[in-house]
């Protein structure tokens, strides 16, 4: 009896007023990457740890050189990027419209990527936690900026049709972050191998760690990374209370450091700083010199933080840690550039296209810089060659003049 109203609300939401608007046509196919056969204990075999991938291509073909790989966060699936719970079009349509091909995944053991009991214990996030942290934060005011949250469509609580549609899309997830990260790293590397050319990784929340790990495994196949409110801060949990976490700084699973690290808890020397009001941050100590992340150093990175999100108190620390490890990173606080009122699920909110435009400008600005540098280098070389040629022409005349002076 209790389920029926929610079911019919969701049915009419999907079938009625909230159909996706202005979806962009594309060619779609899907495939799986990663995984392996494993003994099921009875002498037969099953396949495990594979990852579902959707490949969306503009109908007229992509016009951008780098594909976009979209990695969703905890308790989510790749549907995050397709369309929004209020019926608006999602970021996949936005980027396809601007000439990008997109690869959308369901994390290993999540959504259409099969979970089997051997993969580990699963958990869920209650609707009330979603309200407090994602959709109705202004009601709860759990952090100073929470009251600024205005961009979630609808009330953001149970019974609101948009909230119910969104919460219906949340799913179970692996409790073990290490299991999740290691299987994503392997499957993500397999995906990049299959694509075969450098991609732009767009990650959200939990998937921030997945992006660092995939890039660490295949640095030559990552053009750039856009991390939307990445998992953090280093070495600890703040909002999601729990034990000491992310022992590798940005991840729970191993990263490649220089000098090399075997035991991060003892070999990564730490210090605590208090450079943000009401927040502290654990980074590497200044002495010995901070260890570097060599596989991530050449990859241009953007971290994006929403004005009203709980990540306002942690993303600055992630950025500080990355800079200390030698990574070139830009940090955009959306509120500082006039994009106001967003929470953690910024790509599902009313002004999501405005945020996507910020990402696109950054991506395309970075694309033009190498070309500009190459052009400038070519022009400088041509100017140098012209100068040398002119000097070569003038040299005989100068020698002849010197000879005439000697005769006089």
Essential attributes:
single chain; 36% helix; two-stranded antiparallel sheet; AB hydrolase-1 domain-containing protein; 408 residues; alpha/beta; 8-stranded mixed β-sheet; 11 helices; disordered N terminus; disordered C terminus; Rossmann fold; AB_hydrolase_1
Pairing-aware structural class of the strands and helices? alpha/beta
Number of helices: 11
Terminal CA distance reads 118 Å
Strand content: 15-25%
Strand arrangement, major sheet = 1-4-6-5-9-10-13-14
Mean pLDDT: 89
Q: How much helix, percentage-wise, in residues? A: 25-40%
Detail the poorly predicted runs: 1-20, 404-408
Name of the CATH class? Alpha Beta
Please report the total strand number as a whole number: 14
Question: Architecture, CATH level 2?
Answer: 3-Layer(aba) Sandwich
Number of domains: 1
How is the biggest beta sheet arranged?
8 strands, mixed
Determine the CATH superfamily. Alpha/Beta hydrolase fold, catalytic domain
Choose one word for the global shape: globular
CATH topology descriptor? Rossmann fold
Radius of gyration: 26 Å
Q: What is the element string, with H for helices and E for strands?
A: HEEEEEHEEHHHEHEHEHEEHEHEH
Protein name: AB hydrolase-1 domain-containing protein
Keywords: Signal
Organism: Trichophyton verrucosum (strain HKI 0517)
Q: Secondary structure elements and their pairing?
A:
Elements: H1 3-15, E1 26-33, E2 36-39, E3 45-48, E4 51-58, E5 68-71, H2 91-97, E6 102-106, E7 122-123, H3 127-135, H4 137-140, H5 161-168, E8 173-174, H6 177-195, E9 199-204, H7 207-217, E10 222-228, H8 264-267, E11 270-276, E12 279-284, H9 294-297, E13 300-305, H10 315-324, E14 329-333, H11 352-407
Parallel strand pairs: 5-6, 5-9, 9-10, 10-13, 13-14
Antiparallel strand pairs: 1-4, 2-3, 4-6, 7-8, 11-12
Helix pairs in contact: 1-5, 6-7
């Amino acid at each position: 009896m209790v389920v029926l109203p929610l079911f019919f609300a969701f049915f009419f939401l999907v079938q009625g007023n909230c159909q996706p608007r202005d979806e962009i046509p594309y060619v779609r196919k899907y495939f799986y990457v990663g995984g392996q056969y494993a003994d099921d204990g009875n002498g037969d075999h099953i396949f495990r740890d594979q990852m579902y991938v959707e490949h969306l291509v503009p109908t007229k073909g992509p016009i951008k050189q780098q594909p976009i790989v979209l990695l969703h966060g905890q308790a989510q699936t790749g549907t995050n990027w397709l369309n929004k719970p209020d019926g608006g079009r999602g970021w996949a349509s936005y980027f396809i419209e601007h000439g990008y091909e997109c690869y959308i995944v369901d994390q290993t053991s999540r959504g259409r990527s099969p979970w089997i009991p051997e993969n580990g214990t699963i958990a869920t996030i209650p609707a009330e936690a979603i309200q407090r942290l994602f959709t109705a934060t202004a009601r709860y005011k759990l952090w100073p900026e929470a009251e600024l949250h205005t961009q979630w469509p609808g009330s953001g609580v149970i019974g609101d049709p948009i909230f119910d549609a969104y919460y219906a899309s949340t799913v179970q997830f692996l409790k073990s972050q290490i299991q999740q990260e290691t299987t994503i790293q392997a499957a993500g590397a397999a995906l990049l191998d299959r694509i075969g050319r450098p991609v732009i990784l767009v990650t959200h929340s939990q998937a921030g760690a997945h992006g660092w790990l995939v890039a660490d495994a295949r640095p030559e196949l990552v053009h750039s990374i856009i991390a939307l409110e990445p998992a953090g801060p280093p070495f600890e949990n703040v909002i999601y209370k729990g034990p000491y976490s992310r022992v590798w700084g940005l991840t729970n699973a191993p990263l490649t450091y220089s000098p090399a690290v075997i035991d991060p808890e003892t070999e990564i020397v730490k210090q605590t700083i208090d450079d943000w009001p009401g927040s502290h941050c654990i980074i590497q100590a200044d002495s010995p010199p901070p260890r570097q992340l060599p596989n991530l150093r050449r990859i241009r990175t953007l971290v994006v933080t929403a004005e009203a999100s709980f990540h306002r108190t942690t993303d600055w620390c992630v950025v500080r840690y990355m800079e200390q490890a030698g990574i070139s990173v830009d940090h955009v606080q959306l509120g500082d550039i006039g994009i106001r009122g967003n929470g953690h699920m910024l790509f599902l909110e009313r002004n999501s296209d405005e945020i996507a435009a910020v990402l696109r400008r950054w991506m395309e600005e970075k694309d033009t810089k190498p070309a500009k540098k190459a052009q400038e280098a070519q022009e400088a070389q041509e100017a140098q060659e012209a100068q040398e040629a002119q000097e070569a022409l003038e040299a005989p005349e100068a020698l002849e003049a010197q000879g005439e002076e000697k005769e006089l």
